[in-house]
Design brief:
Layout: H1 3-9, H2 11-24, H3 30-40, H4 47-58, H5 64-87, E1 92-93, E2 96-97, H6 99-103, H7 106-123, H8 130-151, H9 160-185, H10 190-217, H11 220-223, H12 229-232, H13 238-246, H14 249-260, H15 267-274, H16 278-298, H17 306-320
Antiparallel strand pairs: 1-2
Helix pairs in contact: 1-17, 2-5, 4-5, 4-9, 4-17, 5-7, 5-8, 5-9, 8-9, 9-10, 10-16, 10-17, 13-14, 13-16, 16-17
The chain binds 3-methylbut-3-enyl trihydrogen diphosphate (2 copies) and magnesium ion (2 copies).
One 3-methylbut-3-enyl trihydrogen diphosphate (IPE) binds next to α5, α9 and α10.
């Protein structure tokens, strides 16, 4: 099953997710209307709702709850990105200017809050409070992961375990919730729900590792968002941790000097100019590949079907994505 076929499998339901998102993002004022129009210009990859739908199909039961769940999760994700761009001082998101770039930081604080509130309002219309409860927890986990990351800004000697704890919280937790809630709303047995939770957690961890590589080697025009902000904001990511560990003492202290510099405007460029990052990026991809393998192993708990194959295609996509 290739990616185009995966998209085709869920096409009609995805359209309904889009409609639900649009309905939820209504605007009472002119100001809000212009902001929401801007945010709606480009949708992003919609990977999380796609997972909700494919999981529901793999379990042979796609309901109205799944449509709403996909929309709720995508809205929570969108709100987190609007806030994240403030934290990272990013100027581009989803191929257009970030909200903070257009309006400064005050507006996106409130717009993000508004979208979170709308998302939770929508989640209350599902047939059970399961999603509201889990997503309330996950939203706290995302925020707490982002706070943890800020508290470790400039930590050149970050423990690898701390890096993994942060990416699990800020990114993988939402993937795990998307996949396992989709299973719960399909009425799947506990064992299947747990397997999909593991699938989502491993997939989401791989997703963030690849994202951290793209921040270094990606092309802004292809990825469609500001890149190189990790080093600039003092975030140690897996490729940089590997580079640091592989350097002799002198190289390591030079890397530390660049990483902690208060004068350099583009730290990522400075690092790339002085060091060969390729082996470290290769290493990070290898680690991401191991997480994808774990994700695929978790899928063995599902009945064999084209939709199960589609979930492993998503794993390949996460590893090979250029955007
Ligand atoms: C970006 O997520 C934020 C991360 C968790 C790295 P996506 O890459 O899924 O963003 P969109 O939704 O496609 O814009
Ligand atoms: C993911 O981290 C952010 C969230 C989960 C909100 P990043 O800061 O790496 O995401 P991008 O690269 O800005 O999309
Ligand atoms: Mg960011
Ligand atoms: Mg990133």
């Amino acid at each position: 099953v290739d990616l185009a076929q995966v998209k085709q499998m869920i096409d009609p339901q995805m359209l309904r997710v889009e409609e639900t998102i649009q309905e939820t993002l209504f605007a009472e004022t002119k100001a809000l209307k212009s902001l929401i129009e801007h945010v709606s210009l480009f949708g992003g990859k919609r990977l999380r709702p796609a997972l909700v739908l494919v999981v529901s199909k793999a379990l042979d039961r796609t309901t109205e709850d799944h449509i709403k769940l996909g929309a709720v999760i995508e809205l929570i994700h969108t709100a987190s990105l609007i806030h994240d761009d403030i934290l990272d001082e990013a100027t581009m998101r989803r191929r257009v200017a970030s909200v903070n770039h257009l309006h400064g930081n005050h507006v996106p604080v409130l717009l993000g809050d508004l979208i979170y509130a709308r998302a939770f309002g929508l989640s209350l219309t599902l047939s059970t409070p399961l999603a509201s409860k889990r997503l309330a927890d996950v939203t706290q986990t995302i925020c707490s992961g982002e706070i943890e990351q800020i508290f470790h800004r400039g930590a050149f000697d970050l423990e690898e375990a701390t890096y993994f704890a942060i990416i699990e919280a800020k990114t993988a937790s939402l993937y795990a919730a998307a996949c396992s809630l989709a299973a719960e709303y399909a009425g799947a047995p506990d064992e299947t729900v747990r397997a999909l939770d593991r699938y989502g957690l491993s997939l989401g961890t791989a997703f963030q590792i690849v994202d951290d590589c793209l921040d270094i080697i990606g092309d802004e025009d292809v990825v469609g968002k500001s890149l190189g902000t990790d080093a600039d904001m003092g975030k140690m990511t897996l490729p940089l941790l590997h580079l640091s560990a592989s350097l002799p003492k002198s190289g390591k202290s030079r890397l530390r000097e660049i990483f902690l510099s208060t004068e350099l405007k583009d730290k990522q460029a400075a690092i790339t100019a002085e060091f060969d990052l390729q082996p470290s990026v290769d290493h990070a991809f290898k680690v991401a590949d191991q997480y994808i393998n774990n994700a695929l192993k978790a899928l063995e708990a599902l009945p064999e079907s084209l939709f199960r194959e589609a979930l492993s295609t998503v794993g390949d996509f996460v590893l090979n994505r250029k955007l």
